[in-house]
Hints:
This protein is of the alpha/beta class. It contains eight helices and eight strands. Helix 1 (9-22) crosses helix 7 (180-192).
Amino acid sequence: MIIRIIGDEDIALKVSTFFAKQFNEENLLFIDCLCGKRRIPIFYDVQDEVIYDIYDYLNGDVDLYKAMVEVDDRLDIIASSYYEDKKSFDDEDIERLLKDSKEDYDILLFYGDNEISSWNLGDECKNIIVDEKIDPIGEKFFIVSDKEKLFRKVSESELKELNERYKIIAAFDSAMQIDEKSLAKAYQNFKQGDTIELKKGFLDKIKEVFHKND
C-alpha cells in the first residue's frame, strides 16, 4: 500500500504519525518529504542518526538502505532534505523508489506539502489531504481520502462535485479538535472505505453560493 499525506503540515504530521502507529503488523517505510524541516525524524527522536536524506537517494547518490534510519523492527524512515536545491530527480527515480522498497515493505507512507502532489506514485496510491481551505465556505478542517486526483485547494465550482470527487473521512471546526479519538475514527473510515456524513445544510449552503453567483 502506498499512502501520500499532504496539506497543513502540523495536522498532516498528526495524521501521518497516528496512521503509522496503526499499521503495527506491517513493515512500514515512512518517507519525510517536507523540505527543510525533518519533522518525522524529530518526532521519533532519531534526528541525530540521519546521515542521508530522500534527495540523496532519488538523486542516485546512495542506495535505499543507506538513506534509511531504523526506528524499530517494523518501522524505517527516510529523512527530508534541508536543501531544496539538492533536488535533481525525475519520474524514473520515483519509480525506482517504489521498485526498490517493494520487497521489504508492506506500506510506503509519504508525508509532505504540495510539492509531492505531482510525484507519480502509481494508480494504487491512496492520497490524503489535510487542509482548512478544502471548504472555503465553512472553513472547516477536512481529512480527505481521494483516490483519483490530489487537490491542494478546491474552488467553489469544484465543490459541486464534493461527494463524488472526495471521500471525507473526518471533519473538524478547528485543529484543536483533532485528538486521538477523532483520528482513530478517521483511520477506521480510511481502512473501511467509509465516509462521514456531511453536516445537515452543508450542501444547501454551497447551492446558495452558486445561486448568488449565477
